[in-house]
Design a protein that fits this description.
The chain is of the alpha/beta class and about 220 residues long. It has one domain: Vaccinia Virus protein VP39 (Rossmann fold), CATH 3.40.50. The protein contains 8 helices and 7 strands, in the order αααβαβαβαβαβαββ. Strands 3-2-1-4-5-7-6 form a 7-stranded mixed beta sheet, with helices on both faces. A hairpin with a 2-residue loop joins strand 6 and strand 7. Helix 3 packs parallel to helix 4, helix 6 runs parallel beside helix 7 and helix 7 packs parallel to helix 8. The mean pLDDT is about 95.
């Protein structure tokens, strides 16, 4: 058995043992596949991790950059208290339409708001419109813009805000400084900015599983 098969089998073992059967989440993944959305949702174990992290943080105000079909949005939305709110940004109208149906299916339409358009156009309006900084920010969109998303995340944060950025390992290719892949270069620029950023404490974790070999950066904004 090769490593990839082992990673998938172990991932499926944990999800089958540690998660209850979740008809809603299964239907969301099916809806995303039937709509021909890219199969780049977080895995069930990663989604549960986001949920638990938001719970541990006690997050009431969450920002997500990159909605896709709303799978991760629903995981995060489920962690919110009754008066909590999640704003999620999506470039593609088609993706947002699928996500809206999925969010309604999950019964979270009163907690989750989708804003459609380029995130870098929407983020400045959030700084003006949102009265409270976000408790948690999850970045999972076009990787070449991660440096810009980081800068906005810091502006929309407060001391203690948790910032999580997905897909930073790129199957190990993040170390290739001469890569011609815009996603890898965007990730490297993002990491470089973090290395010089004094406002946030961060680390990176590598992950394996049904999504292959990747990882995320997690940070907490300083006082």
């Amino acid at each position: 058995m090769n490593k990839s098969d082992i990673w998938q089998d172990v991932d499926l073992y944990f999800s089958s043992m540690l998660h209850e059967n979740d008809e809603v989440m299964d239907k969301i993944l099916t809806a995303n596949a039937e709509a021909n959305l890219p199969a780049i949702d977080v895995s069930p174990n990663q989604g549960k991790f986001l949920y638990l992290l938001a719970k541990l943080k006690g997050a009431k105000h969450i920002l997500e950059i990159g909605t896709l079909g709303g799978y991760s949005s629903v995981w995060l939305g489920r962690a919110l208290p009754h008066d909590g709110k999640l704003i999620t940004l999506e470039l593609e109208h088609k993706h947002a339409e699928v996500a809206e149906k999925n969010i309604t299916l999950a019964g979270l339409e009163n907690k989750i708001e989708i804003k459609v358009g380029p995130a870098l156009d929407i983020l400045p309006t959030l700084k003006d419109q949102e009265k409270n900084p976000f408790d948690m920010i999850f970045i999972d969109a076009d990787k070449q813009n991660n440096p810009h998303y980081l800068q906005w995340a810091l502006q929309l944060s407060k001391p203690g805000t948790v910032i999580l950025v997905d897909n930073v390992v790129r199957n190990g290719k993040v170390i290739e400084d001469n890569s011609d892949d815009d996603s890898i270069q965007g990730t490297r620029q993002f990491i470089h900015l973090l290395s010089e950023e004094s406002r946030i404490e961060t680390t990176a974790l590598q992950t394996v599983g049904v999504k292959g070999y990747d990882g995320f950066v997690m940070g907490v904004v300083k006082d």
